[in-house]
Amino acid sequence: MSVLVNKDSKVIVQGFTGSEGTFHAGQMIEYGTNVVGGVTPGKGGQTHLDKPVFNTVEDAVQQTGANVSIIFVPPAFAADAIMEAADAGIEVIIAITEGIPVKDMVYAKEYIKNKDVTLIGPNCPGVITPDEAKVGIMPGFVFKKGRIGLVSKSGTLTYEAADQLAKAGLGISTAIGIGGDPIIGTPTKDAVQLLMEDPETDAIVMIGEIGGNYEAMAANYIKETGNKKPVVGFIAGQTAPPGRRMGHAGAIIGGADDTAEAKMRIMAECGIHVVSSPADIGETMAKVING
């Protein structure tokens, strides 16, 4: 049992024939992900990367049985793409697109709220279950199979943590890049909960950043559930000045609890093993689980 994606996932690519969709779909196929087709309105009936192209997600689902979609649609149309996938019965939607207008995401998140769907992103690197499925833009070779779950707001730090874990002789069950926008489909706590409930995950790495309260909510959840799996945590942006956006649209300190220092304190109080540098993630996890 893995989380969100695995070797049985049937993946379609929305924005399949565009440059981003083409490049990353090719990488996903090369990795071994079961990409069953893609969607580009007006190009239905064609083939691309030896896979069928459909005009709509509904057509793709009906003809391929797709249950996972990855979105490489331009920002102005990406929220519509999310809602279209949800309407078609896709179970896991991974929105890579950066720069979707906040009002569009507010509407899309509300629209899919009562549907049986998990949205990851937007503005995220995707999800990978090593050696089974890579549904995203991460470099697959960095991720080694193992039993450590990984949840991260940062794409680059996802790769760094995976590399650290591999160097420590550990591997990843599933890595979830949740995205750094103010409005995302799956906040830190929900992603951590998926891994807490996964029997093939023994411990979790949680990487956050300044801005918002996602990490505090996740930390409180971990404490409330009795710290049943060890968690190593890191917060990016420890030197960021208040009021200035740092990288991600959601990475801005708005109050005293938004700072890296405050988040690290809350996490430590909730029993999380907090590291001050991403270079210490692998070594710390190895110590935690090996005693």
UniProtKB/TrEMBL annotation:
Keyword Nucleotide-binding in annotation: yes
Active site residues of this protein: H248
Positions of the CoA-binding domain: 4-100
GO molecular function terms attached to this record: nucleotide binding; succinate-CoA ligase (ADP-forming) activity; succinate-CoA ligase (GDP-forming) activity
Keywords: Ligase, Nucleotide-binding, Tricarboxylic acid cycle
Residues binding CoA: T17, G18, S19, E20, K43, I96, T97, E98
Biological or metabolic pathway of the protein: Carbohydrate metabolism; tricarboxylic acid cycle; succinate from succinyl-CoA (ligase route): step 1/1
Function: Succinyl-CoA synthetase functions in the citric acid cycle (TCA), coupling the hydrolysis of succinyl-CoA to the synthesis of either ATP or GTP and thus represents the only step of substrate-level phosphorylation in the TCA. The alpha subunit of the enzyme binds the substrates coenzyme A and phosphate, while succinate binding and nucleotide specificity is provided by the beta subunit.
Assembly description: Heterotetramer of two alpha and two beta subunits.
Name of the protein described by the UniProt record: Succinate--CoA ligase [ADP-forming] subunit alpha
Species, as recorded: Roseivirga pacifica
